[in-house]
Design a protein that fits this description.
Layout lengths: L42 H15 L4 H18 L3 H9 L1 H4 L6 H13 L3 H14 L4 H14 L2 H12 L4 H12 L5 H14 L5 H17 L3 H13 L5 H13 L3 H8 L6 H13 L5 H17 L6 H10 L4 H12 L5 H13 L7 H10 L4 H14 L2
Helix pairs in contact: 1-2, 2-3, 2-5, 5-6, 5-7, 6-7, 7-8, 8-9, 9-10, 9-11, 10-11, 11-12, 11-13, 12-13, 13-14, 13-15, 14-15, 15-16, 15-17, 17-18, 17-19, 18-19, 19-21
């Protein structure tokens, strides 16, 4: 059984911008702004182009449209390029606005709505799907991820439990481990997932990638850098293109004060904004002459995303304002806006760091309360929380 592991990640690619360039507004909707690279000699790209041509000749072929849309989603995830998600939605256009689309369309529509942080509509689509297909494993997985991002951990775990009856042991444990790791059970969930991974050496590579990423991030939060490094290296060794893993590993390296390693990891991979941000942070620490260029390019991309009305990357903007632009007040505003939508450890950390930098400890109260309620085990968040609570004392 093959599952599309469409995990919530912050897909931060906003398009390639040029530093200092003014935004370009096309004269009409049909004007081509950029052509994505289709590698003529790649069998995958040749197949994708053939599917596109077939769908153009047969626009009512739902099965072909669904297959093409899933491929676009996979490419969007691999490249952190939101345009592929737009192409996926375009492929589904004849069925997109139906009140009760076919189950396979519902799942794709939920996935695409999830990607643009329209979580309530995504969950509504998943509920419709699960009523007619209660054994749809991908629907339970996507539901678990969305609820986990929103901080509804009991419901997320229920979805993982449903998944345990439908999916592989590794996938189900990666699902539950990603949730239990932030609700005070990090040690136990880490040991369980590590054991299940060792017992399933022939598991699907995508499932192994997710499990290794969960293990790496959990180990880092627990203050076990050697274990985290090992898991990240194992994830990279799978040879699967995954921008989220690269960004997470870069964050780990930055926390370990290894900016040169980040520079080596990402120097040739700056199209996704999430990776450009990490590279800019590393080069800034290295006092590299390229640091300013990366910072300006990233600023231009952020400005372009704002002009498009894109509000799905507030965490990325908050970190830019805090660490690259030296604007702690703006960083705190953005971090709190991001927190209202996403409640993961990385989002909590942004609020705490911005509140400290802006000398506004009371603004961090919602996150401090959340940390106390969840029992999240995170050595870095614990230190930040301690500093903020000290400032809050009368």
């Amino acid at each position: 059984m093959k599952f599309h592991l469409l995990l919530i990640v912050t897909l931060l690619a906003m398009g390639s911008g040029m530093a200092g360039a003014k935004p370009f507004v096309p004269d009409d909707d049909g004007q081509v702004l950029e052509r994505l690279p289709f590698f003529t000699f790649s069998p995958e790209m040749r197949e994708l182009r053939a599917w596109r041509n077939d769908l153009a000749d047969n626009p009512g072929d739902r099965r072909l449209a669904v297959r093409l849309a899933w491929r676009y989603v996979e490419l969007g995830r691999a490249e952190a390029d939101p345009r592929y998600y737009g192409y996926a939605q375009a492929a589904l256009a004849p069925w997109w606005n139906e009140s009760q689309p076919a189950p396979e369309v519902l799942l794709l529509r939920a996935t695409l709505r999830q990607n643009r942080h329209d979580f309530s509509e995504a969950l509504a689509d998943l509920e419709k799907l699960l009523k007619v297909r209660p054994r749809a494993a991908q629907a339970w997985l996507t539901r678990a991820v969305i609820l986990g991002v929103q901080g509804d951990y009991p419901q997320a775990l229920r979805s993982c439990l449903a998944l345990s009856r439908l999916a592989t042991e590794l996938l189900a444990n990666a699902c539950s481990g990603s949730i239990l790791g932030v609700v005070g059970q990090a040690q136990a969930s880490y040991r369980m997932l590590d054991a299940v991974l060792a017992e399933n050496p022939e598991a699907d590579s995508r499932e192994r990638l997710w499990a290794l990423t969960v293990l790496a991030e959990t180990a880092a939060r627990l203050g076990q850098p050697q274990a985290a490094e090992r898991h990240f290296q194992q994830a990279l060794a799978l040879g699967l293109r995954d921008v989220y893993v690269l960004a997470a590993y870069a964050d780990f390296l930055l926390d370990e004060n290894r900016p040169a390693a980040v520079s080596a990891l990402l120097a040739d991979d700056i199209r996704p904004d999430s990776l450009l941000l990490r590279l800019a942070l590393a080069e800034q620490r290295l006092h590299s002459p390229q640091a300013g260029q990366y910072r300006d390019t990233l600023r231009a991309r952020i400005q372009a995303s704002r002009l498009r009305g894109d509000t799905t990357h507030l965490g990325n903007e908050a970190r830019f304002a805090l660490e690259l632009a030296g604007q702690p007040d703006e960083a705190l505003r953005l971090a709190l806006a991001n927190w209202s939508v996403q409640r993961e450890p990385v989002d909590a950390r942004l609020v705490l760091e911005a509140a400290l930098a802006a000398h506004a400890p009371s603004a961090a109260r919602p996150v401090l309360d959340w940390l106390e309620k969840t029992g999240l085990e995170d050595v870095r968040l614990a230190a930040l929380s301690q500093n903020l609570r000290r400032e809050l004392r009368p």
